[in-house]
Design a protein that fits this description.
There is one protein chain. Helix content is about 45%, strand content about 0%. The protein is an all-alpha fold and about 200 residues long. The longest helix has 20 residues.
Length: about 200
């Protein structure tokens, strides 16, 4: 190992080394056709993308430099911001986890000597926006209203109670008329005399 290699940045790598491989592997698998996924993890173990990603991270930490490590995190940032741009661009849960880990790492750069904190300002701003978006639940499409299979039965109208209705021409009962029916006179039978009949 070169005596000139700066090792202060390795104090920021334990959480990314533990959390990023599985999340980044899921992001690469779900972000089809993205430019960032084209430079995917080491193909030594294509059957296990998370293991391949873990091997890449370990090599960067053991044999890489602060600059190569930050280039890797910039690549992860591209995957995260792409996933935040639309649900079809990547695994949102994996993107949120990776975004939070890299954002915390970049914020802690302020405690290290050098200019890396300033150089990662754009990535921090992009990650802050992406993390806010990824923490917001995606709206669901409104469901179409259901149409009842049978038309509703109309309710029976209330019966009107005319006893309590006001005395108006519409509710006033028609007057009752009494008709006198005359009966036809009873025909006389033979041999029956009416009073006053004298022969």
């Amino acid at each position: 190992m070169s005596g000139r290699r700066r090792l202060d940045w390795l104090g920021l790598t334990p959480e990314p080394e533990r959390e990023l491989p599985a999340a980044v592997a899921a992001l690469r698998a779900s972000s089809h056709g993205s430019a960032a996924s084209a430079t995917s993890a080491d193909p030594a173990d294509p059957a296990d993308p998370a293991a391949a990603e873990r091997g890449r991270v370990e090599r960067l930490i053991l044999r890489g430099s602060r600059r190569s490590w930050l280039r890797y995190l910039a690549e992860v940032t591209e995957l995260v911001t792409a996933a935040a741009a639309g649900p079809e661009r990547g695994d949102r849960a994996a993107a949120l986890l990776a975004g939070e880990v890299v954002l915390d790492h970049h914020r802690m750069l302020i405690g290290l000597p050098g200019t890396e904190y300033g150089h990662t300002a754009d990535d921090r701003a992009a990650l802050e926006s992406a993390v806010r978006t990824l923490r917001t639940p995606t709206p669901t499409a409104p469901t179409a209203p259901t149409i009842p299979s049978t038309p509703p039965t109309p309710s029976t109208p209330p019966t009107s109670d005319t006893s309590s209705a006001p005395d108006t021409p519409a509710t006033r009962a028609a007057p009752t008329t009494t008709r006198t029916v005359r009966t036809a006179p009873t025909p006389r039978t033979a041999g029956t005399a009416r009073p006053g009949d004298s022969r």
